[in-house]
Specification:
Layout (H helix, E strand, L loop, with lengths): L2 H7 L1 H15 L8 H5 L2 H17 L10 H14 L4 H21 L5 H71 L4 H32 L9 E4 H16 L3 E5 L4 E4 L1 H18 L6 E9 L2 E8 L6 H6 L8 H6 L7 H11 L3 E7 L3 E9 L20
Parallel strand pairs: 2-4
Antiparallel strand pairs: 1-3, 4-5, 5-7, 6-7
Helix pairs in contact: 1-4, 2-6, 4-7, 5-7, 6-7, 7-8, 8-13, 9-10, 10-13
Amino acid sequence: MQFCNIIRLEKKEIISDWIELIKNVIVEAKEQSRPVLVDHIPQILDNLSDLLEIEAQGEDHKKEIKKAELGKAHGRQRAELTEYSLEEVLVEYSVLRKVIINRIHKCEMQDLTAIQLIHKYLDDGMHNAVIEFVKIQNKNIADGANNLRKEKDLRETFVMALTHDLRTPITAARLSAQLIRKNPENIDNLHKQVTRIITYIDRVDYMIQDLLDTNIIKAGQLLPVQVEVFNINTLIENIISDLMVSNGPRFKFLQKANIDGYWSTEYVRRILENICNNAVKYGAQGAPITIILEKIEADKLTLCVHNEGKVISAKELEEMFGQYHRTEEAIVSGQKGWGIGLTLVQGLVKALGGHVSVESVKGVGTTFKVALPIDIRKLPLNFVYMRSETFQN
């Protein structure tokens, strides 16, 4: 029997022996599913058996077989999908060599030329796998360094914006306190300045809460929800009324359903305010902003916010919900911001057991779509983390 036939007929056994040995010597291999672990090994064995067959047929029957690509593909897969070290990639090839040679020795066949070809093929495969593995690892290191620099720049910009935004209400509150100290007998002025101080402190508290919630979201945790029963249409109308005070009558509310449900008033308000403020900042100036409420199923609703304006690129859409991320348009426009608004939106929506997405089409505009369950009390506890003082039946 030729060596090529031994490998073909016993391919499953060779792979099985290889898997058993690999799991004993490589810790990371134990964590991999069979498809990931086996990877290109069957193709490597098929390729090897073809080479042995060509060798056995003689020089005139030789044909080109692409050996390098399989080794490269294997090395690339190990670098991208596993936590393997370079040493562990080398071990895989050493173990495969051992298993194949043992199988051949069991058949008591001695063909020095074929054995040399096996060693050369596996050496070449190992060499190509190492080159590709190192190439991917070096790229990952370079990308990681670039990401660290980018995050550092984003953080510095964020801190500058945060410092400016916090200083404004603190300065205003200090000024009001100084006016009270200068003229404490003026009761009318006293009440006016105290009200202003409370307003400014509330604004600072709101900013700090955003920061705390963003850190919770970044840590991969759910925000705690205090559940209340209310009519979401009424809440949206109140939010739009507040937004119109500073932005004018740009908002149009299309109510395709009247819905009572169980959510968090605070979270729904923050979600809608952040998305609408985003539309005001980056949408077409003065163009209408449309809010659409629709019941899509008996237990689900969608809340959409549409604004006209420049299309957002696919790359920007992918990164839009990342912490500290600001689109190129936002940076170029000079609009102030921390880059955490949409991160908050995503975290708040997730805390309510929902999902948020965004679509941007040239000539149409940008639409944020928030899908929410109508009664979050019915969701599994792993979807919604409720505070101990939440809604009581």
